[in-house]
Amino acid sequence: MARGPVTLTINGEKQTFAVAPETPLLFILRNDCALNGPKFGCGLGECGACSVLVDDRCVRACTIKISALDGRTVTTLEGLASDSEPHPVQRAFTEMQAAQCGYCLNGMIIATVALLRKNPAPGEAEIRAALRGHLCRCGTHMEILAAVRRARDLLVAERQLPRQEQERSAIP
Amino acid sequence: MTGLREVTRDAFLTASDILLVTRPGSGNDPDIYLALKADGAVIAFNGHVDLGTGIRTALAQIVAEELDIAFERVEMVLGTTSAVPDQGPTIASETIQIAAKPLRLAAASARAYLLALASERSGIAQENLSVEDGLIHADGFAVRYGELIRGEHVRIDIDPSAPAKPVEAYRLVGQSQPRSDIAAKARGDWTYVHDVRVPDMLHGRVIRPPYVGYDHGEGVGNSLIAIDEASVADIDGLVGVIAIGDFVGVVATREEQAALAARRLKVVWREPPARPDLNQFEEALRANPAKTRILRNDGDIERALSSASPRMERTYVWPYQMHGSIGPSCAVADWREDQLVVWSGTQNPHFMRRDLALLMDMSEERIIVERYEAAGCYGRNCADDVTADAALLSRAVGRPVRVQLTREQEHGWEPKGAAQVVDVRGGLDLEGGPIAYDFETRYPSNLSPTLALVLTGKVSGNETVEMGDRTAIPPYAVSNMRIAVHDMPPIARASWFRGVSAMPNTFAHECFFDELAAAAGVDPVEYRLRYLTDPRASDLVRAVTEKAGWRPRTRFGSEGGEGDLLYGRGFAYAVYVHGKFPGVPAAWSAWVADVAVNRRTGEVAVTKVTVGQDSGLMINPEGVRHQIHGNVIQSVSRVLKEKVRFTQTAVESVEWGGYPILTFEEVPDIDVLMIPRPDEPPLGVGESASVPSAAAIVNAIYDATGVRFRELPLTPDRVLAGLNGQEQQAKRERRKESGKRLFRFGLGIVGLAGIALGGLAAFSPWRPSIAAIQRLDPAIFSAASIERGRLVAAVGGCNTCHADEKSSALGGGRAFETPFGTVYAANISPDASHGIGSWSYAAFERAMREGISRDGSHLYPVHPYTAFRHASDSDLQDLYAYLMASPAAASAAPETRLKAPFNIRPLMAGWNGLYLDAAKVPFDPVKGEAWNRGAYLVESLGHCSACHSDRNALGAERRGADHLAGGFADGYEAPALNGTQAGPVAWTQSALFDYLRHGHAVDHGSAVGPMAEVVRSLSALPDADIAAMATYLAGLSSPVAPEEAAAQRDTAILASEAAREKARLAHPEGARIFEGACASCHAGETPLVNLALNSNLHSTKPTNVLNAILSGADAPASLVVRHRADAEVMSMPAFADSLSDRQVGELAAYLRARFAPQKEVWGDLEDAARSVRSTKSASH
After folding, report:
1. Under a CB-based contact definition with an 8 Å cutoff, are residues B1006 and B1089 in contact?
2. Residue B778: exposed, middle, or buried by beta-carbon count in 10 A (0-12, 13-18, 19+)?
3. Which of chain A's residues have a Cβ under 8 Å away from the Cβ of B1076?
4. What is the ipTM of this complex?
């Protein structure tokens, strides 16, 4: 495999890494960028704890080699917030207290963000299907499902808000 | 960076502006339970830790309540040995019930002391003073807590008679309090032990012995024979390889380097001894030496049994299960001559510190355990083990070391929740009451000493402890009752796991009483209420069944069903009794479970659980609710799905495919009833709601089907067998291992003699050498020629074969396994001594066209000169220019040494006489330029047939109809290119183009293995050349219209959907592995090609499927990305270290049945997997 530095954008910042090409993205994020959101869970893409967004898709950082990411954009749990305001999905998970140990929380939040970007109004079955490959051992599923529904509603409200404002300001 | 986080006890003991509430400790210093600072901040200390249950929040509520301060003012310090008192391990749900008591008293003592002080200062009587958020006030007087101690160091003892607040006055306790950690966790700001980084830290990995999951017995601690350090010597950043007894570890600068070294380190171990069968473990448990404890012996059990009618004897079997923490354990250690600091996710910091002291030969006082949260553990996982591992590695390298266990290590080595076998005898008296209850339980488990102590030979894990007695006594009044516990050492490594022995014991009690009720013709809830002796239990049972709308029933089937589904409801009740017998009861719990059983497939869905709990006073009710949810979901998972599998020598289930847990789609609705008991003492809520689970579900299945199950888990195959009244499905016979399938050579000595004696005159075995030349100055070649040569090299894949991971480009060294032995690719860089720098063009051309080296010796036809001989002169000249202008690689490739008689290179002359001219490049002016260009690229430079044609016994490609009809390469099957390929969708020209260009075709899949390298090499070529190859290759089969291909695709996908259920019934374990290990990418809305279209799954041979499972496939990600900016980034990991040959075989059988249902079943898959694995390991 070709060796050579790989440049990608992580949480909005362009970064270059000259490491072994097969290095998993997860190790780069955690050890080189000190981004602790993505967690090591299985190294096999089975549990989802390491999930990050590549562009808008939820992928498993433990199995993605850094060499596959040249020129791509990666967002981690830490990169979801804007202006230090938590992302609505993060807010929803906090409101619903959707964590016990919280180790799987990263994957659940990232998967939810990806789901809601693709499908802003998912039904119960779609939510469960989107999370099926994300394992939680504490049994926080009820709270997580509630958080996803809450996040969906928050985002819908957020989208409507500017529209309403626009409409209001349009009234003479 | 994280250093020591907690302020030490010493610092508090010498601080000023502080009030400390203490109790005499075991050492010279007192234990601190609470500290109040002059600024009003309160730090409270507890020896227990938060395992994800929210204890941190509940404890802070208790402190804030008793002190009358705001919740936010309290900071909890949990577990860290340099700060907190030793309150034993965080087990048995006892934090709130036991460990919180001194804390509460400490807060009450502080409040009383401060009030007295304020009263003294103000002259106002204490009863006239009131407190609000730490402000003591009465008319005209006000003082803050902090002010009272400013400038002082006050130390008071916990006053056991300090007035605790009456419940009526509570404002925080009993109110739901959002947890203090979740917001930070949702932002990624929380520091878990996995996130600890200390200055100068290195990364470690451990390599465990082959007796995975056993901690005593033959071979344990003394199985290491040798370590080949040279096997990892070339890994960048490697700092050390450490071995002590059977403890082996590696340390490197970067984590991926340590991980690579751990994978690659060659360690020779003694063959592990065969162990008792723990898949069918009943016999092993009965044979395990035991000491019997009789916990109760009332009445005359034998006489009562003899008069019982009916008399029932039942055996309940509970499997080995896993804690299954989502994060494999991790720790950091910093060893110095005089001190060891560990950052650990331990459940029992002080208990572990004793183990570390023993392991490291240090006194406990010199060890600090900084406790950080880890992934939820539900009992004893590998948190302590990895801490000890880190300590050993840090001492070996003299720097801080972080050790992260792999998923496979956590699964394999975590002390398991023990299997249990419970025998119950009993029956009814004449009135239908329980006349006798004779109960015997076996629990092979102990405290699991820290693994490093076992591996280094310091202790053995064979101790027997008395923990099989949890909830061993049923809650019902039976006058003749004998309860016996057979205390025994573990067989496989086992220790406490949520519910400990109470879960299996209750499974037996509550199923047996359900059966008694049915035999008596009484509703099972009514029957229990008749014999329950505990009024709080009866209250709970009534409340829960009322909430669930329980309708009394005296026979099964009353819930009805629809279609294949049968509905049922089951009830169970338990109080979890923990601690040393007779133990302490925690919260009471009762379940009504609703199930739907598919009588055709055996699938059981738990659709709803109505669960009630009497927890006494609830500190944080929402926290209790979450804990109940967690227990319900985890225990449903255990009951329906979970069983650890073993090989003869080791734990076999080492990832989530082999040990699947409940997923979102399987989670039941949960209706929680929490009985308000604010006036009763708080009870442990950590585990109680798990305990009735198994019996409630099994009783519900009985209610649905009339069949009683007494063994877990309730997998579809078990349930179906039960419904069909079948015995255990007989294991399928497996035929003996078939021969290796590499290249299909098989050469007898007669064939060789044929070559040697054939003596074809035209092919003299002795060829002249061509004189060496001075290395040419690259400047003599034109840039254009070099560039054209680069493309020729790309088509020919020169650098694919003539380089390996270690060598520089064109430096050679790549090994080719052939049945004749290993052939190493030569260095073809222009280095004068190791490469071909001294070769003239004439020598080069002869090698390319005739397979003769410059010195006159014959090359082996692994070098595809049979194809290259048809290359155009100009292409070969350009290639020569390119090679000569490339950087020289001054390293010798390994010398090829074949097995005799294949090592006689002159024999190749005879070979050439037979086969050299067999290949031809077709030329047909009628077919146009693209086709002819494609033919040239495919048949000459591209030498596709070298892999895609079968070879005869002499290693020559078969021609004629066999040309491009499929072959083997590097242990992979190279499928047919001539229209006879196996996949369900015919290859269109555009699909071929996509595949060669991008390594991926939508209706076919991705290039992996050697083909991925070919595609990578071809990426240098212009689209026109790729299109030309596609044109020629498409012409090898009959033309297919795109609509036809689309119809084929739809048909294949429909067929695979239709085969889903049949495949699952035929291969239940394979189906489970697929769900756990593969479905996260290969099911649902996936951007990957539907597996129903995957050519490899449709092939007559399973080779490529097995290769993909064992070696993974990262080609699509690395190839596609170059061409499509929005392409999915995915990569399939290798499962060679995670799945056994048997598991791979089960999985492949399921895949075939599910995705290529119309194709013939693959046979001997376990053997085939073994063969592919051994080929793979031989070539690395």
Report:
1. yes
2. middle
3. 46
4. 0.95
Residue ranges of E strands in chain A: 6-10, 13-17, 51-54, 57-60, 73-75
β-bridge mates for residue B972, sequence order: B969
DSSP assignments along B1020-1069, one per residue: TS-HHHHHHHHHHHHTTS----HHHHHHHHHHHHHHHHHTHHHHHHH-HH
* CATH 1.10.150.120 residue spans of chain A: 88-170
Segments of chain A scoring below 50 in pLDDT: 1-2, 172
Q: How many CB atoms lie within 10 A of CB B289?
A: 8
Phi, psi of B842 (to 5 degrees): -60, -40
Two tokens at B1018? 């071809």
Rounded CA-CA distance B80/B368 in Å is: 8
- CATH among 2.60.40, 3.40.1350, 3.30.565, 1.10.760 for B768-915: 1.10.760
Joined together, the tokens standing for residue B402 give: 């972080």
Q: Rounded to whole angstroms, how far apart are CA atoms B791 and B1018?
A: 8
Please name every residue paired with B344 in a beta bridge, in sequence order, or none if there are none.
B371
Task: Give domain A88-170's CATH architecture.
Answer: Orthogonal Bundle (1.10)
Task: Please state the pTM of the whole predicted model.
Answer: 0.90
Architecture of domain B282-299+314-320+418-723: 2-Layer Sandwich (3.30)
Domain B193-273+323-413 fold: Aldehyde Oxidoreductase; domain 4 (3.30.365)
> Closest Cα partner for B47 from B69, B77, B26?
B77
Residues from chain A that touch B263, judged by Cβ atoms under 8 A, are none
Task: Look at residue B1004 in the predicted model and tell me its pLDDT.
Answer: 87
Residue of B nearest to A25 (CA): B256
Among the partner residues B188, B236, B375, nearest to A37 by beta-carbon distance: B188
Interface of B with A in 205-244 (CB under 8 A): 236
pLDDT, tens digit (0-9, with 9 covering 90-100), for B721-768 = 999 985 433 333 333 323 333 333 333 333 334 334 433 334 555 678
For tokens 């071995």, the residue is B243
Give helix A105-118 / helix A141-170 axis angle, nearest 10°. 40
Q: Please say whether the beta carbons of B409 and B322 come within 8 A.
A: no
Residue A46 Cα, gap to closest chain B Cα (Å): 5
* Pick among A28, A29, A46 to test the B interface (most B CBs inside 10 A): A46
Cα angle for residues B548, B553, B554 (degrees, 5° grid): 155
What residues contact residue B95 under an 8 Å CB cut-off, 6+ apart?
B46, B48, B55, B58, B59, B684, B686
CATH superfamily assigned to domain A6-79: Beta-grasp domain (3.10.20.30)
Q: Is A58 on the interface with B (CB under 8 A)?
A: no
- Asked if B193-273+323-413 and B970-1178 have one fold, the answer is no
**Which stretches of chain B score pLDDT less than 50?**
1, 727-762, 1117-1123
pLDDT at B913: 65
Tens-place pLDDT, residues B778-800: 999 999 999 999 999 999 999 88
Tell me which of B2, B177, B182, B323 to substitute to probe the interface with A (most A C-beta atoms closer than 10 Å).
Answer: B182
